[in-house]
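Predict the 3D structure for this chain.
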Amino acid sequence: MNDNSWRPMAMPGSESSDEALYEVRRKIYPRSVTGAFDRWRVWLVVFTQLIFYGTPWLQWNDRQAVLFDLGARKFYIFGLVLWPQDVIYLSVLLVISALALFLFTAMAGRLFCGYACPQTVYTEIFLWIERRIEGDRFARIRLDSDPWSLRKLRLKATKHALWIVIALWTGFTFVGFFTPIRALGGQVASAGLGPWQTFWMLFYAFATWGNAGFMREQVCKYMCPYARFQSVMVDRDTFVVTYDVGRGEPRGSRGRKSDHRAAGLGDCVNCSICVQVCPTGIDIREGLQYECIGCGACIDACNQVMDKMSYPRGLIRYTSENAMRQGLSPAAARRRLLRPRVFVYAGIWLALVAGLAVSLALRAPLKVDILRDRGALAREVDGRWIENVYRLQLINTTEAPMQVRVQANGHDLAGIIIEYDRAAEILAPASNRLVPVRIRVPIEAARQGTHKIDVVVTSEQNGHQVAEIDQSTSFIVPREL
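Done. Predicted structure below.
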């Protein structure tokens, strides 16, 4: 195989891509296709949408299993309750997601884009509806070119009505992650939605309808930043959708029983079906392009043509540049996937996942924070005591009631006592309470200056101690009493 068997990815900045950037959009009519990659895509569409649409309806401990309650500043994720103080977990989760994307891209290109990206998923759903109502590629082209008629109006209206229903249900589900979805359904039925709920439901529905129904490949080509920097994450051993130029060229039409080798032709029959099924409208035979989302539709289409012509499959296939150039077997190409950058990504990803899991498992059921009352640093009480006032914030991170006890220990202060509302010792499940605390020291035992004290909060559930939190703070004795 010669060096011309591989054509590099066409990236933005070249003359052709600059011209394409400013051209008027040409509507793409993807042709339906069946095959292994199509089945994977269908299954992942079903799987991802079962998670998205079904999760808000799950119940856990008499509440919605997954709920991001912004008003109460609590995130419920099954048995886990997260507070604003737990933002570190969100940060780690975002880093884990980014590293997973880097890892998958380094191994097999834009897998996420082709199979799990919301833009791809909803485009597939909308295309499925469009094909059922208007027909496949050529029927849709004819329908759009025909003058308006009652039939055309009926087909278009039916399609858009179904699109809008799905978009509205998607917007409703999205808002249902932030407002209890069962209560939200009652508000929609009684036309009692609040302004922000209405805005976000309609906004998300409009975005779904517009992006999946009209913009489609434009989102992937011009709006998605991933398409622009993916080239820095792939190398010559990354598996990508590839056209075998050495085997396919020179392309040309021929009969099924003709000897194309004797005629000087390659295996490509120049049917252009690989272009017709592409959701972004590219020709993979011109080399891998940044618009390619790695969905594999062209592979399924080309394999069907190869079967009809009795040629070997794989003229278009998932393989790497080195495999194509060096004629490596599929097994040898897969072995070269395990290279240093993959091990680095995988190692960091596994370490972060393990660290997150351990941190969540060891997470304290009680959070304590103590702040001084800035309005009164220190004061004399009854001529006998020096008093400092604090605010103690107690957070019960579990979904069971908790009993707490608060004690104060002074390192060099004798006779220290603590006073607070004893009713605050019972913390409701997943509750947050701010408790005023007064700490006093006898005047005769108080030396002028700043003293370190420890506030110890002990919590119990069902008669068993579950946490003991020690918070250090300062006790001030003024110079003049």
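The first strand starts at residue 59 and ends at 60.
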